[in-house]
Specification:
The structure is a homotetramer of 133-residue chains.
Chain A lengths: L2 H11 L2 H4 L4 E6 L2 E7 L13 H20 L5 E10 L7 E11 L3 E9 L5 E11 L1
Antiparallel strand pairs in A: 1-2, 2-4, 3-6, 4-5, 5-6
């Protein structure tokens, strides 16, 4: 799918709470998608950096889009598990979220998500399994 | 910490995006906290159930409060990793989030989070590691 | 399945490398199994405690048996993912491994494994997803 | 560290049970190590493929070596958590295990491990956190 087609699919797939996060599909290919994520003041916790909850939300969202791209269109699926590691804090006004499909089988798909800060440093790393319904 | 003290600490600790989720501290003890989480229409995705992103946000939030309760007050900490498994979909108007501190050492703390649906069935299970700063 | 039936199933299911670990089924029920695991000198690394690899091997093994008990007999299955947290080192001559089936659906099963040291303290905590074939 | 220096360090660091697995350090760099892992008949379970326990043992072992390479020598450390996803079964007589240090801080280090089968296909993917003591 093209970045624009993936962008256009967001309002039809995700919860309004996620749609409101304002992800922009910057790039996409057969087995990946790259999102630009605004780091909104609303995501900043007492420590002065982006809350981990926003990063996990971005990881899951990006993987759904990467799988849609891989499968040639959105298909009903459900997250089976998502493991996130927080390598360094994210500050600045935006970050990038790159989701890659590692393997997509008949009923299960596996992926990896890297979130980089504005300086391009890996800040959050996630791996995930989805069940295709 | 008492449930009320933990409830009162929410606005000072979390990002506005999380505060707006409206968690209610229903119970708390030395090493656990139980939250009531409203399942808002904004969290519902195309599949008709609560999005996984909201569940992960709840798990992380509950564990911060459980650690605050364990430590006798909020202390700077950062999530090292959080692994979430999605056992069944959540519908209804609310769910409960129970976070338990499994071990709290000098620099690392480990916890487990169970999210149950309105029927009391385990729907989401998470485990997590925090670094105490 | 009874503890004895589960014990008897070990040589037919597992790799010789795992069979040689000498797990003993101490208890079992509809959705759990409790193993006694000898902490052999061969498992001790330079730090003087049981290596994490042995703990992960035990967790996976125990969950296969718990699922067999749940399903009323061994059924082809494959581990989809297994996440292990290491809460405290294990020394002594034995530990116990308790695997619990959290949910068993048509194609996926979820479980949790607790490994306790000889003093009964939680030392290793794992969660896992299996695909039933 | 050179591949040979890492190879030579294996007997001093790991448990005899792990040393006996016969890992060969095929390559190494500042933040990675590549191991060749013999797939021994002892690792094959009833399904006819390598057991997941052997893969997890390899992942953990490789990461310790990658961290030793990164730090310029082995240093006391402990696995905090290790999450493994099993993407496809491993058969054949050997596989390769590549561990990469994603970030190494003062007290915590993060890594990623890819295990590929003899055809070079990604079969097992793991992520992990270590505490440097």
């Amino acid at each position: 799918m093209t970045p624009q087609a993936l962008q256009d699919s967001i309002p039809a797939i995700f919860a309004p709470w996620i749609i409101a996060m304002g992800f922009e599909v910057a790039d996409a290919g057969d087995d990946f998608v790259l999102l630009r994520m605004p780091v909104r003041p609303d995501y900043i916790h007492v420590g002065g950096v982006m809350c981990g909850q926003a990063a996990m939300a971005a990881a899951d969202t990006a993987m759904v889009l990467a799988l849609a791209s891989k499968l040639g269109g959105f298909r009903p699926m459900t997250t089976v598990q998502l493991q996130t590691s927080f390598l360094r804090p994210i500050s600045g006004s935006a970050c990038t979220v790159r989701a890659t499909v590692l393997r997509s089988g008949k009923s299960l798909a596996f992926g990896s998500i890297d979130i980089a800060d504005e300086q391009g440093r890996l800040a959050v790393q996630a791996t995930t399994t989805y069940a295709l319904l």
